[in-house]
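I am still learning, so would you mind making up any protein sequence you like and the tokens describing how it folds?
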Amino acid sequence: MVQTYIYAGIAFIVGFGAAWIIRTITLMKLAKLQKSTQGYLESERLMKETLQKENVQVHQFKMAAELEHSKKLKQAEELNKILDEDILLLQRSNEETEALLLAGEPEIHALKIRLLEAQNTIARFRAQLGMKETSTI
């Protein structure tokens, strides 16, 4: 009978030891899983912060580009205004030349034609310069 108690005690101790080992392994796996999950959450938080910073930078670049484009648009509008004024001056000069031609003053007419050609050349150069400026912008 004593042997039965000894075998029962040994079986109890072996069972308790096996249960202890299984519980310890399970707790170690849970601790490892918890640590892995915390690392994943930390990496996700860092990625979120990085994306937010990049979003702010992209927004700043966008605003800078919009500001630059609005400046270029104003410059182009000013250039168009100058070119329109030059065209009006050329039209007036052409009208004056026609009037002088009708009045019969050929010397003044020849000088006016040369002036007109020079103004047209200047206008062409300005237009080409304006186109080069806008194409490089």
